[in-house]
Write a structure and sequence with these properties.
The chain has eleven helices and 13 strands. It has 352 residues and is α+β, with helices and mostly antiparallel strands. A hairpin with a 2-residue loop joins β4 and β5. α8 packs parallel to α9 and α9 runs antiparallel to α11.
Length: 352
């Protein structure tokens, strides 16, 4: 059977395979690129036919010359979890590669079968998240109360020392008192985050136009944005956007996300807040022009105690997720290194 007929038969078979299939000839030129490959990489066969994989920007993490190596060494790779890069976009995949032989046992090319790495489904993600929160839940409200009792005493004594230092005009002692008070406040804030994560909150939800907390937060953060050299831009719906919610808690989420965005734009930038409605949902998008995040950071961003900040606790975004889910909503993130980050909040739309 001629190589042309064999290739035609192989192409027909690969068209029915629910995975991306890419094949090269002995000159390392692409001779097969099925529909799933087009969908995975976002490029048509007509654009890549006859090209070397390097020419189209396709890189295999296992080996830059993977298909050529498979062909030359007559080795196979079976169901290997790895990463491929196409147009600087990383994809987590399961890769199988094999040489192609003619009827005489001669190597005439190599073929790769590429499948998207299966994602953990949403229910499993939630179970994993709840298990992580359960570890936090071991620190009960009673334990936190026991921690706060001595903190209250310390705070009281610091205030007395500050009064005495003020009377004596002892500026050094006054500064120490201020620093201690700031640290006590910081500890109390961390304990409050623990409580938010460890136990359900008895929040009072009312019919709320979500544009209200948005306006309050934008006004509140205006001076802070100026300090960072950041421009604030709002794209808001012209109609009220009603949800069943708690104004204070939604404010907390928005402030946390905006401040994270500020910290990502160390040289200034643009923060855009968009609010819109669909038939069933209210959507808020907070987009910055900061340094973006790696895939690893995105995968762990809502995990309690995960942080990329030197002084961070790793609880802020976990708290945001908990609050949003208490509102029967979802929070998602998309980001690319060097191109900024977008957090998307989706809430059920409240209708009369």
């Amino acid at each position: 059977m001629s190589n042309e007929i064999a290739l035609e038969n192989l192409t027909t078979i690969c068209a029915a395979i629910p995975a991306a299939v890419i094949a090269i000839d002995t000159n390392c030129r692409i001779i097969l690129f099925n529909k799933c490959a087009e969908a995975l990489l976002g490029v048509s066969y007509s654009k890549v036919a006859g090209c070397d994989t390097h020419e189209i920007g396709l890189i295999f993490e296992l080996d830059d010359n993977l298909l050529q190596r498979v062909m030359e060494t007559r080795t196979e790779i079976t169901a290997q979890e790895t990463t491929i890069v196409f147009n600087k976009q990383q994809l987590q995949v399961i890769l199988t590669a094999t040489p192609l032989y003619d009827d005489f046992g001669l190597v005439v090319g190599a073929m790769a079968v590429i499948r998207n790495k299966p994602l953990v489904n949403t229910s499993e993600q939630r179970i994993q998240h709840l298990e992580a929160l359960a570890s936090i839940g071991e620190m009960t409200a009673g334990t936190i109360h026991e921690i706060r009792n001595p903190l209250t005493s310390i705070s009281g004594f610091v205030q007395l020392l500050n009064v005495r230092s003020t009377r004596q005009k002892d500026e050094t002692s006054m500064e120490y008192c201020r620093l201690i008070t700031d640290e006590i406040t910081h500890i109390n804030n961390i304990l409050s985050d623990f409580l938010t994560l460890a136990k359900p909150q008895a929040n009072k939800f009312v019919k709320l136009n979500i544009l209200q907390p948005i306006a309050e937060v934008m006004a509140f953060l205006y001076g802070e944005a100026l300090m960072y050299g950041i421009e604030l831009k709002q794209t808001l719906a012209n109609e009220p956007l009603f949800v069943l919610g708690n104004n204070e808690k939604i404010r907390e989420v928005l402030i946390n996300l905006c401040r994270n965005a500020f910290q990502a734009m160390t040289s200034g930038g643009l923060l855009t807040l968009l609010a819109k409605a669909t038939e069933t949902s209210i959507i808020i998008e907070i987009t910055d022009t900061g340094h973006g995040m790696t895939d690893e950071t995105i995968a762990n961003i809502f995990t309690p105690f995960f942080t990329t900040k030197e002084s961070g606790t790793g609880l802020g975004l976990s708290v945001c997720q908990r609050i949003v889910r208490e509102h029967q909503g979802e929070i998602n993130v998309s980001s690319q290194l060097g191109h900024g980050t977008t957090f998307t909040l989706t809430f059920p739309r409240h209708k009369e």
